[in-house]
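Input sequence (112 aa), recorded before submission:
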Amino acid sequence: MSNAPACPQCTLENTYPDGDNFVCADCGFEWPQAAAAVEEDADAVVRDANGNVLANGDAVVLIKDLKVKGSSITLKVGTKVKSIRLVGGDHEVDCKMDAGNFMLKAEFLRKV
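Predicted structure, token format:
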């Protein structure tokens, strides 16, 4: 298995390095390897809605009511969440609340 990242254009993982570029075998898109390294470093920092850097174990507060997909539960604004855990992916924050375990986007949180 190759260490090449997924294609930024078609999001498929059938990519390979070719000289100074990565190439997607499915759509033919090429992008520089240096840009992929900078992107990975940028993903390492998770910021809340106010731009504060979040870390594992931080306490946060919801800044917006959030409806939970597939359920009638609504997470209310002002709900405090203790001991968050940062994970990769679209939803950066993993947390445990009274209503259950949730993965949330950092843009809906404010550091306490």
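Checked by second reader. The first strand starts at residue 15 and ends at 18.
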